[in-house]
Amino acid sequence: MEYRVKDISLAPKGRLMVEWAERHMAVLRSIKESFSERQPLKGVKIAACMHVTKETAVLMLTLKAAGAEIALAASNPLSTQDPVAAYLASEGVSVFAWKGMTEREYFESIARAASIEPDITMDDGGDLTVMLHKLSIGEAKGLDYEVAKEIVPPDAYKRVVGGTEETTTGVIRLRALEREGKLLYPVIAVNDSMTKYMFDNRFGTGQSTLDGILRATNILLAGKNVVVAGYGWVGRGIAWRARGMGARVIVVEADPIKALEAYYEGFYVTDMREASKIGDVFITATGNRDVVREEHFLEMRDGAILANAGHFNVEISVEDLERISTSKRRINENVEEYTLRNGKKLYLLSEGRLVNLAAAEGHPSEVMDLSFGNQALAVHLLWKKKGKLKPKVYRLPAQLDRRIALIKLKSLGVRIERLTPKQVEYLRSWTA
């Protein structure tokens, strides 16, 4: 078994972290128990590109208990929990991840995972999937392709029966491939499951983003003007939790329906041009690029803080920030101070990368239990249906979504109502 981690001697610490997470992940424990008995993935090769956290480790070990062979790479250069990576390696998972990767090391690690010629891919952001697609057509563009062509067979995609995608950004990329007729194999958009986006995106990112900002800066949120760019499920989670901590929240949104929703939920809604003049803390959560850029930086208050909760580090234009700054210095591991040419100082957190994972520990285990329950069931479904699905983006079937919710409710000790036969019939009838 091949692996590359920062320090394998950290494995005992990682084991304790993973045990703690698993204790709070009842859905995955239930699935793991079932998988262990039946071994439905025996001999299946899985290449995964995901945040290497204690919660991800519970998912990987669940799939391993089902009989799968797994190669795991990080989906962000700064999000890996090194003790967890070491523990997974000690448990027989081929891990290629450590915190603080260079860009080349990041893509090399994804290529190492892909080089096992997987049956199933698991992605968080689409980098693994896109890499395999670039190789298939000999796309001579991008560092990912340049690195991968030296490591991964160009026809590695031919063995893949299907894939999964964890996050909004990755689903956007997959739908673009599907729209252009270039998607090579079926992919289940786990992000589109209700037990994922309504909980992970809203409750998980909402809490963990503020956790990352506070760990990095220790500022008082109460009384601050917090600008949240994007009012999707992630943005609304951040906005509601920032307001709950006493912040005055300003929402910047391009979609008129989402903007109207934010307005009627009591937030001040405006564009980034106006928000840049009054914000103290800026949090991006759009999935788009250059959301905060040069003209906004120059209008900001002295001391404004910039944080990103989107998957890729493109939402805050670091290129613009570098160009209009006369100097920069590192305040701590996750805070860089930029002095602009107008004399103002701005503070960028975690290099503009995912602040909740780079500066904190990511989502709480309880909410990732739902997301990764979806992932485990999606992998199982893909293998059961190998050769029967077209190269399209699919949602996980509603009954599996409901199964996850029911397991979680049972673990919480929550009872729900059961419809009587007459009630069921009434809801099915048009005659009433």
From TrEMBL:
Pathway: Amino-acid biosynthesis; L-homocysteine biosynthesis; L-homocysteine from S-adenosyl-L-homocysteine: step 1/1. NAD(+) binds at residues 167-169, 201, 230-237, 253, 288, 309-311, 356, 363. GO terms for biological process: L-homocysteine biosynthetic process; one-carbon metabolic process; S-adenosylmethionine cycle. It catalyses: S-adenosyl-L-homocysteine + H2O = L-homocysteine + adenosine. Substrate binds at residues 53, 124, 166, 196, 200. It is an enzyme of class 3 (hydrolase). The keyword Hydrolase applies. One of its GO terms (molecular function) is adenosylhomocysteinase activity. Keywords: Cytoplasm, Hydrolase, NAD, One-carbon metabolism. Residues 201-362 form the S-adenosyl-L-homocysteine hydrolase NAD binding domain. It is found in: Cytoplasm. One of its GO terms (cellular component) is cytosol. Binds 1 NAD(+) per subunit. InterPro entries: Adenosylhomocyst_ase-like_sf (IPR042172), Adenosylhomocysteinase-like (IPR000043), Ado_hCys_hydrolase_NAD-bd (IPR015878), NAD(P)-bd_dom_sf (IPR036291), S-Ado-L-homoCys_hydrolase_CS (IPR020082). Pfam families: AdoHcyase (PF05221), AdoHcyase_NAD (PF00670). Belongs to the adenosylhomocysteinase family. May play a key role in the regulation of the intracellular concentration of adenosylhomocysteine. NCBIfam families: ahcY (TIGR00936), PRK05476.2-3 (NF004005). PANTHER family: ADENOSYLHOMOCYSTEINASE (PTHR23420). This is Adenosylhomocysteinase.
